[in-house]
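Project standup — Tuesday

K.O.: blocked on the structure for the chain from last sprint. Re-posting the sequence here as requested.
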Amino acid sequence: MKGGRALIRSGLRRIADRIAPTLNDAIGNFFAEMTYVPGGWYELEGWNDVGIARAQEKHWPVIVRSLEGPGPLGISHLPWDTSRELRHAHNVMMSYGYVLARAAHKRDRLTMLDWGGSLGHYNLYTKALLPEVEVEYHCYELPSLCRAGKRVQPEVSFFDNEKDLAPSGYDLVISSSSLHYVKDWRAQVPKLAALTRDYLYVARLQCIRIASTYLTLHRVYREGYQQFLSWCINRDEFVNCVRDCGLELIREFVFTEPWCVRGAPEKPESRGFLFCRRAPDK
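H.V.: unblocked you, prediction finished:
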């Protein structure tokens, strides 16, 4: 009898293992906020919508409070996330702490550009993670987000024109969840590389590993957010594009489990990449 029950349990587990992925995919596709776009890029208001800047500015005090004290740093800048114990956000934060440590090694002062940095929340993260090092923080963004950023952080240098960025570059350049929203991301990579004196950190990039880069439409409709076009970028294509600019990959990060994009050839995942202008000392 016991042997028969064991066989039944084993058989049920095998059936469940086969059904579960299909069922999860069906549920994921049904609730997916992102849809595969087989055609080319078209114009949307996207991040230019002033409602986004208003929502982020309203949410700013929540971020500031969440960074106080010795609690977990699982904090998101998204207006609908109010916890400081978000595990995926904690992963992002600790990964950034590693990047900061590498970039600030043997330095008392660090110049940094946050390209596509919203209101400059990474400036707050930097102070929380590495208060011992003076960081000269600069942020490039769209005009509406720059205006809001200047109100909440008047000490930060905000730029909405890339021509105004320092031609000599920055010790550390970061681009977090921003490059895949650029119409011609391949042309943007050399610009970021040219601004990088030492380290380039591309975080929370929507990546795929097998399929070719494809376009998606992301419908959010929460807290002032609307619709966005974004790329799911082939990982090898991206890394090779950066390497062609004279930078070497020295660390890769993974932030989330793959998620569903309705109709897409492959599930994307959020990954990060730290590149260096020169190979680190052995």
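K.O.: great, moving the ticket to review. The two ends are 62 Å apart (CA to CA). The helical segments are 2-31, 50-66, 87-103, 121-129, 143-152, 185-194, 235-243.
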